[in-house]
């Protein structure tokens, strides 16, 4: 498998999952501004959407969209329990979290990264995020990860979003459960290995 990614972007989520599962994979860095890959290709010929993550399977098949990719990866090694079995209520609860993170967190950050956003828009987005963070903190006050069963691919996605907070002036300290969760995630060997790899990639 080959993961097309950009260090620090939402592709961090499947990158973490690959390390957590110990699945053999290659990575190809993508410049999201020029749409060029580190091996000299036009990324849009691989993924016409033009954004990461993108997973290329060994037979050449392309899979896009982070929530789909992380579930595909988890299902490659079901014995690792990073996603509940298909057809179970727990699997739908995982998908519930993935959808919530994608629509209610991930997309709420987009205006905060846009230098053209007005002060009023930024304030409104931060207020929305505060409401969402408060909801998530309630869950994380009850158990260590989003699902009662433990670490899952939804946690890789949530952690990825939380890493953006400091870059856009969102303070997580009002939600101690989120601060503890972020530290707990960074103590996981798979997460630490991924962060180290992406830090090294940024130097190149």
From TrEMBL:
Pfam families: GST_C, GST_N_2. Residues 1-81 form the GST N-terminal domain. The keyword Transferase applies. It is an enzyme of class 2 (transferase). Its EC number is 2.5.1.18. The keyword Signal does not apply. One of its GO terms (molecular function) is glutathione transferase activity. SUPFAM superfamilies: GST C-terminal domain-like, Thioredoxin-like. Keywords: Transferase. Residues 87-204 form the GST C-terminal domain. PROSITE patterns: GST_CTER, GST_NTER. NCBIfam families: PRK10542.1. PANTHER family: GLUTATHIONE S-TRANSFERASE GSTA, GLUTATHIONE S-TRANSFERASE-RELATED. This is Glutathione S-transferase. It comes from Thiomonas arsenitoxydans (strain DSM 22701 / CIP 110005 / 3As).
